[in-house]
Amino acid sequence: MSRFTEKLEKMELTVIPMRGLVAFPAIPLSFEIERGPVSEACEAADRHDDYIFLVSQKDISAEKPTSEDLYEVGTVSKIKQFLKLPEGNIRIVIDGLCRATVLRYDTEGEHLRAEVMCKTISIGSNGGVRGEALIQEVLTVFDNFIELLPKVSHELLLAVKSIKSPGLLADFIACNILIQYADKQKIIEEFDPLRRLELLAVIMEKEAELLKTEASIHKRVRAQIDGNQREYYLREQLKVIQNELGYNSEPDSEIDEYYEKIQAANLPDDVREKLNKEVRKLAKTAYSSAESGVLRNYLDVCLEIPWLKTSKDRIDVEAARKILDRDHDGLEKVKERILEFMAVKQLNPEIKNQILCLVGPPGTGKTSVAQSIASAMKRKYVRVSLGGVRDEADIRGHRKTYVGSMPGRIINAVVQAGTRNPLILLDEIDKLTRDSHGDPASALLEVLDGEQNKAFRDHFIEMPIDLSECMFIATANTLDTVPRPLIDRMEVIELSSYTRHEKLSIAKNHLTVKQFKRHGLNKRTLKISDDVLLEIIDFYTREAGVRNLEREIGKICRKAAKEIIETGVKRCVITGDNLHTYLGSRKILPEKISADNEIGIVNGLAFTELGGDILKIEVAVLDGTGKIELTGSLGDVMKESARTAISYIRAHAKSLNIDPDFYKTKDIHIHVPEGAVPKDGPSAGITIMTALASELSGRPVRRDIAMTGEMTLRGRVLAIGGLKEKTMAAYTAGAKTVLIPEDNECDLSEIDSVARSSLEFVLCRNANDVLINAFIPMPGAKDETKNAVNKSEKECRSPKVEIINILPDAVSTDGNIGASY
């Protein structure tokens, strides 16, 4: 016999009425709410992290339901996501927790509230034999029921088959299969899981009978409609026969006009033959028929395509270099690649199939540089926005047999350009999505394949179109969401975030000029010095690109224009002293290194979508039982790095003058400030290890040192990414020395010249190198430390390896680590 457990809990919650929807426990639900008291109540609950009570209306037509218009049983829920939509509505994602019965309603306050009794009934062993029998019965009825539905997803079927809990099975099927919300309300009002299954089986049987009856009626109606369509087709055929016999005497000037256009157009022979065939078909079709409109649309689109028309490329490399340098500062990799193509084009005019992908953070000039490339090469420029495209037909077009069909975006771009060799920018290629209508990324495989796009077939055109002379440039913020086969077809050029001095150059040469012209100003009426621009970069914007910087400059221009008009001044001069009157107080306080050498605090370096950042790792050791606490919104990879660092410290505790039993007698708390910002990645490994060694050994770490690098369990320091941005962050924060992995030595050439000349870079192979450079040398121990480490490295080269214990102030590694190199 199964054991029943009943849990009761009384709560007072905000009531959210629902029209035509029923929320179930343990099943997420997404719905929209119009602006009003209900949305304000949800917003207040989300802000205070409170539970809400979702209950359905008896009459869904009631605009302002009262307590009498609501059912007595609903679901206690938690808001998981609260999103404000552009049109003003609110989208909410909730997670149901438990059923509850209303004890009383409270209508006195600003929002409707209710005192509810939460009731949860649990059954041991899933109801035993009776529960198993009911589950089998419900699944049998469910299989018969879904055969009458148009289409049920395979994922839903798998989910139903995998649920073993009677209560959850009943709720899941009711939520996803039942059509009438009143039937769902009956299920939510049944607290007993086994009775709930019985009730669900009865409801599905009734719904199955209803669907069978509706199918029979639909079949009879369809037969009658087919008879009417047959009569319509016969009448249309009669019209065609009359036209063939000459009874229609209207002049067919439109047909002659199409023949003239085809004859005058520069078309390939196979295209001309195809279009003439379509014109002959149009001539035999009734003017008012739907097919006639389809044929006219098809002919008009095909005649607009530049089948053989091309524009002449500029092949002057020096002239192109001047245009690219004039329009953009930085972006050297992109400029160099385009100049290389133009040089090869000069030697081999037949070269084709140039497909590039620019990957970088927002605001770094990916889209605008494509337009400059088109200008430098004297090619037509067309931008195709792919953000949010989820239908394959957007790329390949629709079959022309459908009403309202049209070609895809690629053909439209060629038509818009007017030549067969334009520069087509595929903007935001990483924002492509997919749904039941197909995968647009798969359709792009043929477009971006140099061996296939010379005969690209659009579903609407139905003839091969040569795209091999087009130059495709795609842009993306990340390649994580781009399919690998698509990446393989493109030459990827990564754009890093702009440095402080690159932003200053862009602001001086481009942004201020653009904003001055936009606001009717010039250098005589408004002066913004370099120091002011650096102040804006450092304290008013934090970004990888320059979009926010341009907005701040635009804000200064607007206020200056207002000041000139209102006060009559001839010139506005922006200085560091009066900048706050235009932009307000500083918005960003950059992270700086500490004023003193501290124990247990180390300057790490991080790479974010906004560029580099200083990341201070803090470690506290307390008396305890060996617990490890990790805080600061750390991801799984960063947590693993912390555990690796602890294991390394344990393995080398004696060499580091640390109590070998610290993991038994001490609790360790590792914290990374700015806890609201999620952090992840392996590059903080050596930073966490250094902070742990400092706190456990009591040795301070140099305040002017920063570090980055992944560390293995054996102490080896592995290469990391984003070195350019990280070193710039170290320079901005005031660090003097940066510890980096030895494997990143090849990346030093890409570091900003200002940062490279101001910082000392130390290449580290293992944890020894890190700790020797990070710790403050103890008096009289510096030479002994180095000798001990050198001795350790020499012995590690011999076949016989042993652990070397050195002075308390020094750091060593075991033989296995040395041998691995």
Quick synopsis:
The chain is of the alpha/beta class and 821 residues long. 43% of the residues lie in helices and 18% in strands.
Commentary on this structure:
With 821 residues, this protein is an alpha/beta fold. 43% of the residues lie in helices and 18% in strands. The strands form 6 sheets. The protein has a 7-stranded mixed sheet with strand order 18-19-17-16-20-23-24. The chain has a 5-stranded mixed beta barrel with strand order 1-3-4-5-6. Helix 2 (128-146) runs parallel beside helix 4 (166-176) and helix 4 packs parallel to helix 6 (193-244). It is globular, with a radius of gyration of 36 Å. The protein starts with a strand and ends with a helix. 35% of the residues are buried.
Helices and strands in order, then pairings?
Layout: E1 4-18, E2 28-33, H1 37-47, E3 51-56, E4 73-84, E5 90-106, E6 113-123, H2 128-146, H3 154-162, H4 166-176, H5 181-188, H6 193-244, H7 253-264, H8 269-283, H9 290-304, H10 317-327, H11 332-347, E7 354-359, H12 366-377, E8 381-385, H13 393-396, H14 409-417, E9 423-427, H15 440-447, E10 456-457, E11 464-465, E12 471-476, H16 484-488, E13 491-494, H17 500-518, E14 526-528, H18 530-539, H19 547-567, E15 572-574, H20 579-583, E16 601-608, E17 611-623, E18 628-631, H21 636-651, H22 662-665, E19 666-671, H23 685-697, E20 705-707, E21 710-711, E22 717-718, H24 723-733, E23 737-741, H25 753-758, E24 760-764, H26 767-774, H27 782-797, H28 815-820
Parallel strand pairs: 1-3, 7-12, 7-13, 8-9, 9-12, 14-15, 16-20, 18-19, 20-23, 23-24
Antiparallel strand pairs: 1-6, 2-5, 3-4, 4-5, 5-6, 10-11, 16-17, 17-19, 21-22
